[in-house]
Design a protein that fits this description.
Layout lengths: L6 H13 L4 H13 L1 H26 L19
The protein binds zinc ion.
The site of zinc ion has 6 residues, from helix 1 and helix 3.
Amino acid sequence: MKLMHSCAEVSRLLSKALDEPLGLLDRGLLQVHLSMCGSCRDVDEQLRELHGMTQDLFATEEAGEPEPAAPGAANGGSPRGS
Ligand SMILES: [Zn+2]
């Protein structure tokens, strides 16, 4: 049984991790590999940076339409109030 991923597998997992949650085993193996492999840490950082930029784009788009903070929810929507 192989405990270490190769760098190629790790970079594939890293980009996959941005799209979908990884399994516990994959995440554990990634952590182990990243703790020992500086070049894969670089790849990880670059991917996160890239991903963060695209997320910022989406976030800015969504921020254009602020969600109303549940109007009337505080008093149960009752018109009588007190
Ligand atoms: Zn590596």
